[in-house]
Amino acid sequence: MSEPVIFILFNRPEKTARVFDAIRQYKPSRLHIIADGPRLTHENDEKLCKSARSIIDTVDWRCDLTHDYATQNMGCRQRVSTGLVKAFEIYERAIILEDDCLPNQSFFNFSEELLDRYESREEIMHIGGNNFLSQKENTDPGSYYFSKLFHIWGWATWRRAWKFYDVDMKDWPRFKKSGHFKKLLPDPLMRSYWSRTFDLSYNKKIDSWDHQWCYACLKAGGFSATPKTNLVINIGFDADATHTRSNQKNPASKSCELSFPLSHPNGFKWNRISDRIVQKKNFKRSYGGIRTFIDIVRGI
Questions:
Q1: How far is 214 from 177, CA to CA, in rounded Å?
Q2: Of 11, 138, 252, 275, which has the fewest beta carbons less than 10 angstroms from its beta carbon?
Q3: What stretch of H or E contains 11?
Q4: In angstroms, rounded to a whole number, what is the distance separating the alpha carbons of residues 73 and 111?
């Protein structure tokens, strides 16, 4: 059977329609919709939210459809986090897409196979749809590699992993000072960036839910299975975006179908080299363009 798909949307009907069309091709037997409500300060929000939701009414395959629609605007942080918490009370595992994350069909097949393969492997907590490496940089021989960067532009996970999630990151100040954090992220560049990012999320300086998921996975000693090619295009880099503005570089502007059968990694090993390249290219500045101390010292 196809895996449950959790689809998160808001007020972008055109983008919602494109991603929904990809979901329609997959034909999940269970489709769970999380939608935020309109903002009172934006006069077009009510119309746009209604238009985006109406696309879901066009489901034309046999499907167990669940709606989780907010009547008022909750914001990205609370709407997505509360929605996913509720969803994983229903589902043991699921594929998650937001309305600006356009997958190719191999993303669904990749997620299905690895959800089965690593269901009981607790250190695998995340299956990603993104790869931000160029073809020259990506030298891993398998179809995917194990990473400590948890990309969320199309991903999948299990209830057993989601149980570690805490949107408030209550234990972050204590964990930050522990030797365990340094042990999990021995690279000073990565540790400096994520420490700064987790600080901002903990102090609610960012209206986001996903850094908390990265933190949960890292703290639990988890890894992501990252595909060798990018499987999901981010179509949300524009002026209407919450976090991905049009003047930013889009590392997921293209996708490529993954070949099957999959070539699984020979053994279980963190690919530190690939992670460092991605970190340096795409995560070298803290949120809002603030350069980290390590960036400045190294002239990055």
A1: 18
A2: 138
A3: none
A4: 31
* Domain limits, the chain: 1-99, 112-300
Residues with Cβ within 8 Å of residue 130, at least 6 apart in sequence = 151, 153, 154, 226, 227, 230, 231, 232, 251, 252
Dihedral sign from CA coordinates of 46, 21, 79, 153? negative
**Statement: 1-99 belongs to CATH 1.20.120:** no
Task: Put the strands of the sheet holding 144-147 in their side by side order.
Answer: 64-69, 30-35, 5-9, 93-98, 155-158, 124-128, 223-227, 144-147
Write down the pLDDT at residue 239: 55
Give the CA count within 13 Å in the CB-facing half-sphere of 214.
23
The string of pLDDT tens digits covering residues 207-261 is 999 999 999 999 999 999 999 999 999 998 765 545 444 445 777 789 999 999 9
Tell me which amino acid residue 148 is.
Answer: K
Q: What is the pLDDT of residues 52-103, one digit of tens each?
A: 999 999 999 999 999 999 999 999 999 999 999 999 999 999 999 999 999 9
Alpha helices in the chain (DSSP H): 13-26, 45-56, 75-90, 105-117, 159-162, 172-176, 179-184, 188-202, 210-219, 272-282, 293-298
User: From CA 2, how far away is CA 299, in angstroms rounded?
Assistant: 48
Across 110-122, average pLDDT:
98
